[in-house]
């Protein structure tokens, strides 16, 4: 027997957390574009993360997992309920109970185990929305690239949710409820932009924000010299940056479009100015990932050196853009 949420309306998106959270928001009658959700979530960021337990460094172009949804619900005066447990049995009950009560739920998991994922790589900071199940499958909403309306076996869902490692959580699931408090969109856009700019310009450590982009310009040279699998490392990173959107142009494109929507609504000229800056910035990020791909193909350091120069430029450009946004 199949049990699915009545009148479920999936959110069609390019990024996993905005897609999952957008699907939950759709169910309570709150509908925004993906760029607007990303902007209201104060989502633009950067991180270069390298740990001994990781096969190769991670380049991320957004704020850390979970915080995007926390910011969206905070700014929209909504109630976010997060559940975590180390018990696989309890984890399933948490999700099943929500679906049985006609409430869509979002899950954080390792995409490696999902049946429909063709690029098998461990990444435990992936999000999906769940809207149904039967005796064998869970029915999910994932990004447009992954097929939007998809399914995976219950067994593999269990493995994906309980996987340990970088960015993982303990079988995390969350739901969103309307508090009926309402919100002033024009006000919260300005608040979200200023908050995002402030965080980006004041990173707690040097591998985050604009400082992180500058640090990456040097770290990728060390990475190339020390890599045991240049082809695998850099081609996989290029794929993640562009197709999975972790650190490539996707988030800059989303923020660019958010600024355009915000300008159309608020008519603050500075928003239009920075929107144009992010259009150029996004193109440069695509160039970086293309150079990573060429590095993997040729194993020639000249492409890493070129990428390094672009990253130095990107650090300056993004710092200037965020300084302008801080003053709107």
Can I get a quick summary?
The protein starts with a strand and ends with a helix. It has eleven helices and nine strands. 53% of the residues lie in helices and 15% in strands.
Q: What is the gyration radius calculated from CA atoms?
A: 20 Å
Cα separation of the termini: 54 Å
Strand share of the residues? 5-15%
Number of strands: 9
Main pleated sheet: 7 strands, antiparallel
Tally of separate helices: 11
Q: Give the H and E element order.
A: EHHEEHEHEEEEHEHHHHHH
Describe this protein's structure.
Strands 1, 4, 5, 6, 7, 8 and 9 form a seven-stranded antiparallel beta sheet that branches. The longest helix has 30 residues, at 269-298. This protein starts with a strand and ends with a helix. Helix content is 53%, strand content 15%. With 328 residues, the chain is of the alpha+beta class.
Outline the secondary-structure elements.
Layout: E1 3-4, H1 16-27, H2 34-40, E2 44-49, E3 58-62, H3 67-75, E4 78-83, H4 88-100, E5 105-109, E6 126-133, E7 137-141, E8 149-153, H5 154-162, E9 173-178, H6 185-201, H7 209-226, H8 230-244, H9 249-266, H10 269-298, H11 301-326
Antiparallel strand pairs: 1-6, 2-3, 4-9, 5-6, 5-9, 6-7, 7-8
Helix pairs in contact: 2-9, 6-11, 7-11, 8-10, 9-10, 10-11
Name the features.
single chain, seven-stranded antiparallel β-sheet, 328 residues, two-stranded antiparallel ribbon, alpha+beta, globular
